[in-house]
Amino acid sequence: MKESGTEKVFYVTTPIYYVNASPHIGHAYTTVVADVMARFYRNNGYRTFFMTGTDEHGDKIAEAAKKAGITPKEYADRISAQFRALWPQLNITNDYFIRTTDENHVRTVRHILQKVYDAGDIYFGKYEGYYCVGCERFYTETELVDGKCPDHKVAPEYREESNYFFRMSRYQDWLIGYIRDNPDFIRPERYRNEVLAFLREPLEDLCISRPKSRLTWGITLPFDENYVTYVWFDALINYITGIGFPDREEFRVFWPESNHLIAKDIVKPHGIFWPTMLKAAGVGTYRHLNVHGYWNIEQSKMSKSLGNVVRPLDLKDKYGLDAFRYFLLRDMVFGLDSNFSEEALVQRLNSDLANDLGNLVSRVLSMAVRYFGEKAPGPSGTAESDRALIGRAEALPREVEAAFQELGFHKALIAIWEFINLTNKYIVEAEPWVLAKKPEGRERLGTVIYNVLEALRVIAVLIEPFMPDTAGKILAWTGAGGAGQNLDSIRKWGGLKPGAPVKRGEALFPRVEFKKEEEAPARPAFKSKPEITLDEFQKVDLRAAKIVAAEAVQGSSKLVKLRIDIGEERTIVAGIGLDYKPEDLVGKWIVVVANLKPAKLMGVESKGMLLAASAGRELSLLSFDKEPEPGGSIK
Ligand code: MSP
Known about the structure:
alpha/beta; Rossmann fold; Isoleucyl-tRNA Synthetase, Domain 1; CATH 2.40.50.140; seven-stranded mixed sheet; five-stranded antiparallel sheet; elongated; binds 5'-O-[(L-methionyl)-sulphamoyl]adenosine
C-alpha cells in the first residue's frame, strides 16, 4: 500500500482458482484473508481494489469436462458459477470477478504474447521431457521423486513436441538482483529464500504453448493458429487484465500497489514466471507476493481421494460465518501450515467468542440499560483506574496497523483480545453493581458505563475486517453505528456520544458442545425420593440466572465461586469444579434455588445453589432452550 500525495492505494488479488473442483476451505482461507485486508484498507481511507476469479483453460479442465460429458466451456461455466456464488455468502467484498474465458482477458493475453514475440523473447523449438498432467508442466529428471511427480505421486508421461518458448533465462540475473534489492517483494522471508535458492541453478526457458493436435481448450497464439497458450502464461496475466491493462486509469493507479496472495503451492509461477513475463512485456512488476502455508485436515493433506475435503458453507451453517472467519485468521500464522479440526474451531468459538467477546458485550449492554435506560451516560472525570484502559485503547490502532503491514493477522487478533479481557477485568474492579446501590456512586457509575460502552465501540471497529456482521451489531447496539467508524475514529478515546441510543441486543455467539461419539453408559434403575405436596414444592424459589464471572475457590479442586446475575448480582458457590473450568462457565444460563439459607463454603458465602444433573460420571448444568430474563421465576 502507498500514501502518495493525498491518495492512498491498495490492490489485492487471490489466485484465480481452477474450475476442476468445487471450492474448499483452502480457497476460502486465501479469499477471506484478501477480504480482511481489503476491508481494513478500504475502511481506513485507501482507494482499494480486490479481485478474485477462475482459471478456466488447460488440460486439467478439458479432462474434467470430458469426464462429466460436457464441453469445457459448459464445465467452466458451471464451476466458476459455484465460486462466484460462494463469495457473497462468506461476506467477501471483491470488486471484480475475473474469468480467463472473458473476452477482454483473451484479447489482452494475445496482445502481450505478440509484444513479447515481436521483441524476440519467444522462439520456436523442440521439447522433450516428462510431463505431469496434474501440474500442467514438464519436469526435469532431478525434480522427480522415484520417477514420479512429487505432488501427484504419479509417473509423468514422456512427451516430445515442437513448441514455443519464452526466453525466461534471459531475465534470471535481473530477477535475482530485483529480489535482493527489494527484501519485501516476496514474503515471508522463507519463500523469498525458496525462490532465491531456485534461482541458484540456471533458469530454463519456459514452454508456453501446446499444439492444438493435443489440446484445443486455450487461447490461440496470435502468431501461430496451430497452438494454444500454456495455461500459466494465460492465467498470470489476469492480474493486469482485470484492472484494465494497458490504458485504463485503474491499471495505472492500482498496479504499482499490487499485493498477490497465494499459498506455497504456486510460488514458482508467481515468483519466477510472472516477474520475468512482466519484464519482457515492458510492464513494471507487482509490489508484493504474500505467501501463506497450507491447511491440513486432522494432520493430513486435504484431498478428494482421502475424502476429507472441508466445505466452507458446511462450517458456516454449523457454526456461523463470523466464527468461521475468526477461526481461519486466528489459528493460522501467515506463512506457516496449520491444522484444521472442528474441535479446534469449537474451542475457539466457546472460549474467545462466546466467553470473552460475547459475554463482555452482553454484560456491558445489560448493565447500561439496567442503570441508564436506553441512552449512553456521559463520563465525568477520569480516575486513575480508567487510565490503563484508555491508554491500551489508544495504543491499539497503531499496533493493529503494524500487524497488518507484516501480515500478522493472528497478532492483531491477540492484541484485540487482550483488550477485551482488560475490559472484563476493568468491570470486575470497578464493581458497577456496588456503585449502583449508593446514590453518591451515580456519577462514577456513569463514567464506568460510558467507558465500557466506548471500549465496545473500539473493539467493534477493530474486529470489523475480520467479523463484519458482529462488528455491525455491536456498533448498532452501542449507538455508535453509521459511517465513519474507522481507525481514525478510535485513535482518541471518547468518540462515543453521551446520549447515544443503547440496546441490549441478542446473544452474539451461543456456545456449542463438541462431542466425539462415545458409547452410552448403562441406564441406572429408577428410584424416587419420598413424595411431597405441591405446597411444599412451591416453597422453593427457583430462578433463572446468568453467570457473569467465575473463579476457583482457593484450596479446593471442586468448588467454584460464581458471580451471577439473578435480577441482582450475587455470589454462589458450586461443587462443579471437576466438570467445568471457571472460564467456560461465564455466560452460561443456570437454574438457581434463590431462597436457600446462605452458607459459608471454604470461607466464601454462598447465597443460593445451582441445579445440575448427573450425566454419566459427569455433571450437566440445568439450562434453558431460549434466553430467559435474569431473575425470571421458574414455575
Ligand atoms: N489456477 C491456479 C492459480 C492461478 S493464479 C494466476 C491454481 N488454482 S487452485 O485452484 O489450485 O488454487 C490454489 C490456491 O488455493 C492456493 O495457492 C491457495 O490460495 C488455495 N489453497 C488450495 N488448497 C489449500 C490449502 N490446503 N490450504 C491453504 N490454501 C490452499 O493453483
